[in-house]
Design brief:
The protein is largely without helices or strands. It contains 2 helices and no strands. It starts with 13 loop residues before the first helix and ends in a 70-residue tail after the last helix. About 5% of the residues have low confidence.
């Protein structure tokens, strides 16, 4: 309501009552119109960061070792020995070495979504109403037909 609730009813004219016409007033009251509006409250972001952790594995590692074995020669094995042998023999020894390869593998997808939640929130406010009363002043003198 745009107009203030003042004396809207003060437009009554006592001369109208004498003419026999009805006298009337308009009564006003405030009504509440409750609405909602969107307002930003906060911001949510997805942010990646790196976390490190220690991983420990037990890996089986093999290596070759040199072992010297001697056998006594007998008459049977003496025939199997070659006549000219080199003065030096080389054997290459091998071992397994641990190799670590890091591979970046996708493990999960993370999404950020919005969901609207509706709650019922009570709203209380004060409204004003106009009341109209009849004030009747009795005549001060004796009641005669002319006074009515």
């Amino acid at each position: 309501m745009t107009a203030p609730m003042n004396d809207y009813a003060s437009s009554g004219n006592p001369d109208l009552a004498a003419s026999g016409r009805a006298v009337e007033m308009t009564r006003f009251e405030e009504h509440l119109q409750v609405t909602t509006r969107q307002a930003p409250v906060s911001v949510a972001r997805l942010q990646k960061f790196i976390v490190t952790e220690q991983k420990t594995f037990t890996v089986e590692v093999r290596r070759e070792e040199v072992r010297l074995t001697t056998e006594p020669l007998t008459d049977l094995t003496l025939d199997q020995v070659p006549a000219d042998q080199p003065d030096e023999i080389e054997i290459v020894l091998h071992e397994e070495r641990i190799s670590i390869v890091r591979e970046l593998v996708p493990v999960e997808r993370v999404k950020l979504t919005k969901k609207t939640i509706t709650v019922h929130q009570p709203v209380t406010d004060t409204v004003r109403k106009e009341h109209i009363d009849v004030l009747h002043e009795p005549p001060t003198g004796p009641l005669t037909l002319e006074a009515l």
